[in-house]
Amino acid sequence: MSEVDKAQQLLQEVEFGGRKPQGWVRWLVLGLAVGWSLFQMYATYVGTLNELVWRATHLAFAFALVFLVYPFGRRSSRRRVPWFDWILGVVAVGSALYAVFEYRGILEERGGFGNPTDVLVASSTVVLLLLAAWRAIGPAMPVIAGLFMLFALTGPAGLIKLELPGILGELHAGATWRSLMNQLFMNTNDSIWGTPIGVSAETVFVFVLFGALLDRAGAGQFFTDLAYSLLGGVRGGPAKASIIASALNGIVSGSSVSNVVTGGNFTISTMIRAGYTREKAGAIEVASSSNGQLMPPVMGAAAFIMADLLGVPYPQIILFAILPAILAYGSLLVVADLEAAKLGLRGMPRSELPDFGKTLRGGLHYLLVLAFLLYCLLFDDPFRAGINGPLTPNTSALYTVFVLMGVIVLQELYRGWRGNDLLLGLRSGGQMIVEGLENGARNMVGIAVATAVAGIIVGVVLITNVGTGLADIMRTLSFGNFIAALVLAQLISLFLGMGVPTTANYIIMATLIAPTLFKLGTEAGLDYGSLSFGTSEVAILLICINFFAFYFGIMADSTPPVALAAYAAAAISKGDPFKTGVQGFVYELRTALLAYMIVFDPKILLIGVGSFGEGLWIAASALLGMTAFSVATIGYLAGNVNWLLRLVMLASALLLVSSGYVSDLVGVALFAAVYLLQRFVLGRRPAQG
């Protein structure tokens, strides 16, 4: 098996499940996946389904696919579905569908207090959900949820008659199994049917489907070719083109592993041929692919959940995220340039690069589809202009999916016409759409079960006051210092990221840690005021803290020792996975700095920026500050940078990313001093390695 095939296999196991059933079971999987996509499109279009019905049906489809395509372990059969998986799948689907058919009784007649049948079904749903999550996203998330449930059941009045020590024992008296199941199953708030899976079903799915169809249509290859046609010939061109391609592919895919495999098959090998080491080539792809979730307008499931939890319209989240995304990718381009200068590399020969004009013309329709999505999200209903204003995110994505399906058919008909076979073109277009519907659904399995499990954690937090206990613990460990609390939160997020996907990581951090950070920040005097969205007021500091949690959730994806994106990149580059992960983490330190910048200066989110000139100044000083930080971490500017000059550059970075014109000017002066010292006094020193 080739290294690229190994990377594809890793992607298959992570994104689509490792099992490849044959015969009629393969057709069953196809039918379930396509049926799930069609159901989601129908539910989004009518918009009138009962919330519990929609969410439970969503989970039922995910259950069916989990037990068919995700084996329990690596030694499990990859081509045959064992009998016990059939039983588990049928029971799991039946448990979820029970909520569909009994929703009136659950919500109206029994008022959230389950009868014995309800409790039995709730128990099977919760247990099978944890098992499904173990298969689809690994053991970390279900283990965490299980520990939360165990804590909820422990206490003098709980199922487990045990007095917990210290502050843990003061939080609650303990819950019975029946009361816990009532909380987790018998309502649509703070349960497995709560906000996380609601956002997954009602918003995230249709965006993931849009990305899957766009990728299947060929947009990923177009973005890669376009990036190489623009930047492939400059110094460090292959790396810079890889970064831009990953940024564009991030619009299509919210998965760092998928982004690595999709673009990395070509970009990593060209970086190695240009002179980057195998580990650095893989690390650049890892960093750029992980940052793909920062790219508006489609920023992954966690961004939609953030909008819902904060009560901020998603289009506003897009506007907040624009400048940070530009800074993240702009600074990564600087990193690639510094590495190229350090290694003495040049760009690729123009003869090996795609023609820009031809490439752009060949994929212009993909850009038009993205423009259509942005128009729907930010401006107006394209079919009834001037009547309703911007569409909701899910309706915008649904309309764009319909348009994209038409574009796919026209694209393939045109190709068929050029090949004198219109029927072949029509058949090809239909096949692409079906495969896109299947891939979209299978991409959603992990998100659906992760958000449902996150609902368990949210429910336990509600009935146990564990959030208050964690706040006290964080306050004690940080000595009440806000910066120390941020560092502690960063470490928790990175630790969770070893086994928890970005979406679940963000939900845990937003539910448990963000309120504590907000309280400590307010006590520290960081009161930036609030923003109004309709009838709700949202504190600006709380928005900044949620972006902090979101960014570290993304960064955790590429943090060793468990960094699937690094393993995928190393499989392609034939480099060392751990060294690739460590190097990727060094490159990703810019994202960590960006997260802190947002907390201490909301203007990075363009909040409170009074003019275009002020916004330009903020962007320029922040980018120069992140450049100085990159110089300090990489150790190269106009030559090798010794440790003393690294400290000077670090000071420059901290001054530039601080809010204030005086600190910016001092930071610029320090940066210029180091550059001029190297350029004209010390001279350029040869650098290798």
Keyword list:
transmembrane helix; C4-dicarboxylate TRAP transporter large permease protein DctM; mainly alpha; 1% strand; 3 domains; two-stranded antiparallel ribbon; TRAP_DctM-Dct_fused; 689 residues
What can be said about this structure in brief?
This is C4-dicarboxylate TRAP transporter large permease protein DctM. With 689 residues, the chain is mainly alpha-helical.
Structural summary, described in words:
The structure is a single chain. This protein has 3 domains: 3-143 and 176-188, no CATH class; 198-448, no CATH class; 609-688. It has helices at residues 3-16, 24-46, 51-69, 83-101, 103-109, 116-137, 140-153, 166-171, 177-185, 195-217, 219-231, 237-252, 256-274, 278-290, 301-310, 314-343, 356-378, 393-418, 422-464, 466-478, 482-496, 502-523, 540-556, 564-573, 577-600, 612-634, 643-657, 661-682; strands at residues 530-533, 536-539. The chain has a two-stranded antiparallel ribbon. Helices cover 74% and strands 1% of the residues. A hairpin with a 2-residue loop joins strand 1 and strand 2 (536-539). The chain crosses the membrane at residues 27-46, 52-71, 83-101, 113-134, 141-160, 192-214, 317-336, 363-379, 391-410, 444-467, 479-500, 506-526, 538-556, 589-609, 616-638, 644-677. InterPro entries: DctM, TRAP_DctM-Dct_fused. This is C4-dicarboxylate TRAP transporter large permease protein DctM. Residues 126-602 form the TRAP C4-dicarboxylate transport system permease DctM subunit domain.
